[in-house]
Amino acid sequence: MNNSIIYALDFDGVICDSAVETAITGWKAACTLWHDMPTAVPQVMIDQFRLIRPIIETGYEAILAMRLLYLGETVEAIYSDYGDKIQSLLQDAQITVDDLKKLFGETRDVWIADDLIDWVNMNPLFDGVTAKLQQLGRQHIWYVITTKQERFVKQILKANAIELTDERIFGLDRNMSKVDVLKELLKQHPNTTVYFAEDRLPTLINVLKHDELASVKLIFALWGYNTAEDKTLAVQQAFTLQQLHNFLEL
Fold first, then answer.
1. What's the domain count of the chain?
2. 236 and 145 inside one domain
3. What is the pLDDT of residue 250?
4. DSSP sequence for the chain
5. DSSP string covering 220-236
6. 74, 90, 121 — which closes off a domain?
7. Both 10 and 46 in a single domain?
8. Given this model, what pLDDT does residue 2 score?
9. Domain encompassing residue 44
10. In terms of domains, do 134 and 241 share one?
11. Which residue ranges run through the membrane (predicted)?
């Protein structure tokens, strides 16, 4: 195994195409808060959610996003005023972010308990990624850095026969930012090159602001949840832009 290089990979949008599952979980959870919403999520809402997925940082936000879509907000309107719209919903519902995180996780737990196979099927890995990660595990040390709760990452990796020990999954449970995790990995692995693959442009730009992370090689995952504008802006930044086939060839 080559220990001179380690990989830190975001999960949703880099490893897993979880947009449909996130939309459905968000809808299910929203239905428990707002009883005017029908139990079954309309397909058009799932399609619209995929369009706004790039601005969602953490899964619980899907609850608010699906509520906004149900209320008739357009994709364009949500993009233009996302922060204010979700703050308004939080105030109207008298609910906190921590409440939403708990509700989102519990809603997933119920779905998994009721039909694990269906839940896993709604979380497909991107084409070729399963074999890539199985190969990566034989050649390099690698980590998952995600805003997803760790138990869900473990379920999906296990379902795809991908082995990764618990200490190599840094999820929402740890209350660490991705910047903090990368700093920790540099401490744990001195004299190594760390590659960090991420599909959210703001996350990568934030990493660039930290001088102590200057040695981290940043990969912008173009196959993930980002917009045409993100891709244009990314060209001007000090990181590598990769299509999925480039990542698979690493």
1. 2
2. yes
3. 82
4. --TTEEEEE-SBTTTB--HHHHHHHHHHHHHHH-TTS-SSPPHHHHHHHHHHGGG--STTHHHHHHHHHHTT--HHHHHHTHHHHHHHHHHHHT--HHHHHHHHHHHHHHHHHH-HHHHHHTSPBPTTHHHHHHHHHHHSEEEEE-SS-HHHHHHHHHHTT----GGGEE-GGG---HHHHHHHHHHHSTT-EEEEEES-HHHHHHHHT-GGGTTSEEEEETTSS--HHHHHHHTTSSSEEE-HHHHHT-
5. EETTSS--HHHHHHHTT
6. 121
7. no
8. 79
9. 19-121
10. yes
11. none
Asked if 96 and 55 sit in the same domain, the reply is yes
pLDDT at residue 68 in the model: 98
Q: Where do we find the tokens 């290089």? A: 5
CB-count burial class (<10 Å; 0-12, 13-18, 19+) for 241: middle
pLDDT at 20 over 80: yes
Asked if residue 157 and residue 76 are part of one domain, the reply reads no
Question: Which tens digit of pLDDT belongs to each residue from 50-107?
Answer: 999 999 999 999 999 999 999 999 999 999 999 999 999 999 999 999 999 999 999 9
- Do 101 and 218 share a domain, yes or no? no
Using pLDDT thresholds of 50, 70 and 90, give the confidence band for residue 1: confident
